[in-house]
Amino acid sequence: MDLLYPGVCHRCGEGIPGDRSLCEPCDLTLPSLRTPFCRKCGEEFEGRIEGDFECPNCRDLRFSFDFARPALPNHPALLGMIHELKYLRRIHFGVELGRLTARAFAEDPRLAEALEGKWPLIPVPLHRRRLVWRHFNQAEEIARSLGRHTGLPVCRALSRLRGTESQTRLSRAQRLKNLKGAFALSVSGRKFTAGNPPGAILVDDVFTTGATTNECARVLRRAGVQKVVVVTAMRG
């Protein structure tokens, strides 16, 4: 297959084998999340801060998830891949983004509990209309690749009951209102939560205000999941 359709690096255009979308030199130019960062939302901060801390944005907020861990900070190359995955339907980028997202598990000891406990990866769902238009759920594509790199199962535990207004230009308060009641357990989710499982990992492409993942986590927690953490490819 490589002879007929040789792969090329998304950044430099050099030929690469297999299902990769980045060559090794370009992969190394993408920085992982660096300390210090907010232990709640993963926002990086400049300067020297000793120990764990919560940023001013998170300090007075109550989330239904324990913490969100983006694998990488906001980076133009990564954002470009996410946009091309979502809006140009370059579904093969999901494989590379899942591989990059696995960095979070390798670099953050807080996720060891999830690895040891084999917590499921739960992709943030799309509404049916969006899914029909896009043909795939980008969060699910990332989760599937992430599962191959971490050995964790993927569970489509949530469904989206209604379409919502684009979140891009909304404030956090508007986003929370926009998303209220938008998610529910799927059939798989009801089976998963029946025994009050110890944990679950929500997976999405980008973490921004946390409004979407918080609403998803709220549904899971109310159903009996004891701990929910969020892992994304990038911090928005």
TrEMBL record:
CDD domains: PRTases_typeI. Residues 1-58 form the Double zinc ribbon domain. InterPro entries: ComF/GntX_DNA_util-trans, DZR_2, PRTase-like, PRTase_dom. SUPFAM superfamilies: PRTase-like. PANTHER family: DNA UTILIZATION PROTEIN YHGH. Belongs to the ComF/GntX family. This is ComF family protein. The lineage of its organism: Bacteria, Pseudomonadati, Verrucomicrobiota, Verrucomicrobiia, Verrucomicrobiales.
